[in-house]
Design brief:
By secondary structure, this protein is an alpha+beta fold. The protein has helices spanning 29-36, 76-90, 171-179, 217-229, 273-276, and strands at 4-10, 13-19, 46-51, 60-65, 94-99, 102-108, 114-120, 142-143, 146-147, 150-153, 157-162, 189-197, 200-207, 211-212, 236-241, 244-250, 256-261, 264-270. A hairpin with a 2-residue loop joins strand 15 (236-241) and strand 16 (244-250). The radius of gyration is 18 Å and the shape is globular.
Length: 277
Amino acid sequence: MTVSFRKMHGLGNDFVVVDVRQNGVVFTEEQVRRIGDRRRGIGFDQFITIEPPHQPGATAFMGIRNPDGSVAGACGNATRCIASLLMTEAGTDTAVVETVSGLLPACRAADGTVTVDMGPARLDWQDLPLSEARDTLHLGIGAGDLQDPVGVSMGNPHAVFFVPDVAAVPLTEVGPVLETHTLFPKRCNIEIVQVEARDRLRMRVWERGAGITQACGSGACATLVAAVRRGLSDRRAEVVLDGGVLTIEWRDSDGHVLMSGPTATSFTGIFDGSLLA
């Protein structure tokens, strides 16, 4: 079977996207790892499948896999990309993307910017989840100069550390240590954040199962929520990532987090049979 794909990105957070609504192709963990190899395969931060929806009201279901083949619960940048594809396909400016974490409504502005309602931030220790009961405002763990993060779930777990200078943090060293800390039974995304102003936050990220990425939409959402909870930010701010800027708002009325930013397609192609063997 010939299987085509699309390479997309949101601020450099890159994805291999496969529409399986018609052919029903199922990818094994080994195939995902093979495709994700940036030297022998294609390479991606997440592998995305567009599938038939499971719930009423959804436009399509979005499956998310990490480069190691594991399943991810949420990916904000990929949600924007898939929403943009679905809106173009339907000739509309709205779509509802279904994920394992719930339904995510999206809309597109005249300039092409896509906004996704990422749902409510979840702040209880069981939501992340943690291996024991703790106050998520002060998790009380650390590695090196990174200490006492804020815990936030955006459908996936995040630990947000505030630092004076994100450039000074050896993220490749501390990221994997913190991702696999015993407090996080399902591992954790690690954000390091420098507050530049109440409406501007500088963030770098270590994503579980992927490592350092250029951008992380759910991480940017978690960052704003954590900053607001610590009294460091307004409820709407720019989050500056290595790959660009997202606008994040933590809505006071219902606790939902809105994420706005661009999407892009890099190229399309057809998988070689060796990647699917």
